[in-house]
Amino acid sequence: MKNIIIIHYAEIALKGENRRNFEKKLVENIKLGLKNLSCEKISRISGRILIYPKDNAEIKKFKTALNYVFGISHFSFGWEISADLEEIKITLAEMLKKRIAGNSSISLCGDYFEQCRNAQDGNFIKKKIVTFRITARRAEKNFPKTSEEINREIGEYVLEKLKVKSEKLKVKLKNPDINCFIEIVEGKALIYFEKIKGQGGLPVGTSGKVLSLISSGFDSPVAAWRLMKRGARVDFIHFHSYPRTGKASINNVKNLIKILNKYQFNSTLYLAPLLDIQREIFSKCEERLRIILYRRFMFRIAEALAWKIGAGALVTGESLGQVASQTLENIGVANNAVSIPIFRPFIGADKIEIIDEAKKIGTYEFSSQPYEDCCSLFTPRHPATKARLGQVEFEESKLDSEKLIKEAIEKMEKVEFKN
């Protein structure tokens, strides 16, 4: 009997002829996520991925690491034995006997299962009656018994074998104390008792590369995370006004990317200076259009970088109507500055939803820190909320846009984040 971790996926299974490529990428990402942990091997079999931990003391670390891998629907700590019905019966009966007796020495995966149960469920061994069910799945269709027959035969065997404890053990198909999962696949029987929810989505790297405009706020880091969940590799660009503003926003962004990097294992940040452009706009252009002019320059610089690094789209954390630059009219004028697609995952979300998701993924703490970003510099008293394209283009004609963009790109700094 071997301790194993069983990985299941959902959306990948619908990918038809491309499924193998998605599975291969998921295995690659799992290996990256487990790089600092010891595995005997990681194998892909019939709609599942099996991990064989080498060091049982690291089991809890495996759970933490797998929670950062997109593409996993759920995973379980369990055991692998031969796909022999008699062996399955004996093994499962022994496991249940020890659980009912309150003995947690079945194996390390068994210990982990006991520790992971919440306080309410963890008291089941103290109950007068313990309920269980057998949930078998037969992926190997030439196995001599159907799933229903396996359920019935093993259930009957367990009750008979543990008849001394019969007053404490009953079958219950709905919401049992113990659900004994059995999967028959490629000559193996996989046994486990708990499904741990994964991140879902698609493996990072299966949907191309995008470039995220990231600030220290709540919105843009979570927007980038959402693109990662859809399989995109995300690089980042942060616009700053240093030294006119402090380095707080730059440092916050670096900390945010360290958190996001756990989900894609390596990331690149480009620090783009905006101060010279802002000074030109401040001195030559109409005050109320400053924010939308800043935004159009940001998009142009980001687009030029995206073409250079092979990113197919830009990503922002914009939400319709949230601030002056995010009105329908201003978003349209900003879009007009570039031809590259701009993804806005939160266009229909409110701030509470975004903050809740920031808490969930771990970026909330750093996004809550006070900072002064580039858009807070030279802020107009009454920013335009319904800018007209012709008006904005007239203001831009007062600037040497090509030169300003070229200089900003030349002064850009590159920062790498590794797993």
Describe the protein's architecture and organization.
The chain is an alpha/beta fold and 419 residues long. The chain has two domains: 2-197, VC0802-like (2-Layer Sandwich), CATH 3.30.2130.30; 209-418, HUPs (Rossmann fold, 3-Layer(aba) Sandwich). It is 38% helix and 21% strand. The chain has 14 helices and 15 strands. The protein has helices at 19-33, 59-66, 85-100, 108-116, 147-161, 219-229, 248-260, 275-284, 290-309, 328-335, 351-361, 364-367, 389-396, 401-410, and strands at residues 2-8, 39-45, 48-53, 74-82, 130-138, 169-171, 178-185, 188-192, 196-197, 209-213, 233-240, 266-273, 314-315, 342-343, 413-418. Strands 1, 2, 3, 4, 5, 6, 7, 8 and 9 form a nine-stranded mixed sheet that branches. Strands 14-13-10-11-12-15 form a six-stranded mixed sheet, with helices on both faces. Strand 2 and strand 3 (48-53) form a beta hairpin. The longest helix has 20 residues, at 290-309. The radius of gyration is 28 Å and the shape is elongated.
In short:
The protein has 419 residues and is an alpha/beta fold. Helices cover 38% and strands 21% of the residues. A hairpin with a 2-residue loop joins strand 2 (39-45) and strand 3.
Q: Features of this protein?
A:
single chain, 419 residues, alpha/beta, VC0802-like, Rossmann fold, 2 domains, nine-stranded mixed β-sheet, six-stranded mixed β-sheet, 14 helices, 21% strand
How do the helices and strands line up, and which of them pair or pack?
Blueprint: E1 2-8, H1 19-33, E2 39-45, E3 48-53, H2 59-66, E4 74-82, H3 85-100, H4 108-116, E5 130-138, H5 147-161, E6 169-171, E7 178-185, E8 188-192, E9 196-197, E10 209-213, H6 219-229, E11 233-240, H7 248-260, E12 266-273, H8 275-284, H9 290-309, E13 314-315, H10 328-335, E14 342-343, H11 351-361, H12 364-367, H13 389-396, H14 401-410, E15 413-418
Parallel strand pairs: 5-6, 5-7, 10-11, 10-13, 11-12, 13-14
Antiparallel strand pairs: 1-3, 1-4, 2-3, 4-8, 4-9, 7-8, 12-15
